[in-house]
């Protein structure tokens, strides 16, 4: 049970099983690459429940993930993977940095989803990268990038209608993938309101971390509202 890694929202520990790790969700929230920070009692529990539930939804759709089980209010067991240093972002609606980069009004629905890659490097601000950049950095092969894009679109094909049925628009979301010791690529990290933009279809209210980024509401109340909108079925 040795500490292995600590990130902005989670701590990672070894277990007695070589290929199994323990994740502990923290109550901290960050934005703008850690420039804005705060702590919210109960956030870790909510993100653990929500992420565990979303991974179970995806596993039921035959999408392979690192998730094994939720073992406590803040903890889950996952398969050990080496994270590929790329954030895979899927966009269904223009928002955030895409709106700023291209000058397209936030809220514009995309005709087809867009998949983007960002280089995971805090010192560089996690920049947007092209396939040529990824090849230059030798982060991933062309075949692996094809697989990541394909799998990200599969995740979108499951989660987008899942949220739609609950009156929520899945605007965009970030995924991370990792490799097992045998080379299998699995969806890893988390899926939560920290990593997704979710808007109420009727009111347009944010049900995600943008309430913290933009100072437009209570983060805990927002996450609890999302939890309740899902029927509280993430027990």
Q: What does this molecule look like?
A:
It contains 6 helices and 14 strands. By secondary structure, it is an alpha+beta fold. The two termini are 25 Å apart. The model has no long low-confidence stretch (mean pLDDT 95).
Helix content: 25-40%
Radius of gyration: 17 Å
Query: Count of DSSP helices?
Result: 6
Largest sheet: 7 strands, antiparallel
In total, the number of strands is 14
Identify the quaternary structure here. Answer: single chain
The residue ranges in which pLDDT falls below 50 over 5 or more consecutive positions are none
Cα distance spanning the termini: 25 Å
Q: Provide the β-strand percentage band.
A: 25-35%
Write the layout of secondary structure elements.
Elements: E1 3-6, E2 10-14, E3 20-25, E4 28-31, E5 36-39, H1 43-60, E6 67-70, E7 75-79, E8 82-83, E9 86-93, H2 96-102, E10 109-119, E11 128-129, H3 131-137, H4 142-164, E12 168-179, E13 185-188, E14 196-200, H5 210-213, H6 219-229
Antiparallel strand pairs: 1-2, 2-3, 3-7, 4-5, 6-7, 8-12, 9-10, 9-12, 10-11, 12-13, 12-14
């Amino acid at each position: 049970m040795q500490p292995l890694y600590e990130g902005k929202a989670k701590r990672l520990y070894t277990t007695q099983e070589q290929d199994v790790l323990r994740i502990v969700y923290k109550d901290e929230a960050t934005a703008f690459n850690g420039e804005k920070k705060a702590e919210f009692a109960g956030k870790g529990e909510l993100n653990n429940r929500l992420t565990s539930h979303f991974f179970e939804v995806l596993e039921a759709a035959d999408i392979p993930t690192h998730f094994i089980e939720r073992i406590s209010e803040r903890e889950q067991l996952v398969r050990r993977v080496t994270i590929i240093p790329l954030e895979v972002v899927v966009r269904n609606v223009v928002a955030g940095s895409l709106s700023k980069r291209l000058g397209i009004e936030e809220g514009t629905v995309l005709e087809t989803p867009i998949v983007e890659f960002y280089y995971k490097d805090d010192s560089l601000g996690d920049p947007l990268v092209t396939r040529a950049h990824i090849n230059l950095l030798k982060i991933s092969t062309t075949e692996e990038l094809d697989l990541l894009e394909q799998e990200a679109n599969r995740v979108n094909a499951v989660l987008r209608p899942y949220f739609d049925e609950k009156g929520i628009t899945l605007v965009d979301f970030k995924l991370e993938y990792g490799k097992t010791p045998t080379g299998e690529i699995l969806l890893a990290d988390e899926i939560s309101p920290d990593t997704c933009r979710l808007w109420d279809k009727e009111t347009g209210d944010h049900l995600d971390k943008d309430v913290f980024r933009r100072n437009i509401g209570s983060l805990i109340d927002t996450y609890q509202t999302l939890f309740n909108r899902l029927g509280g079925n993430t027990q």
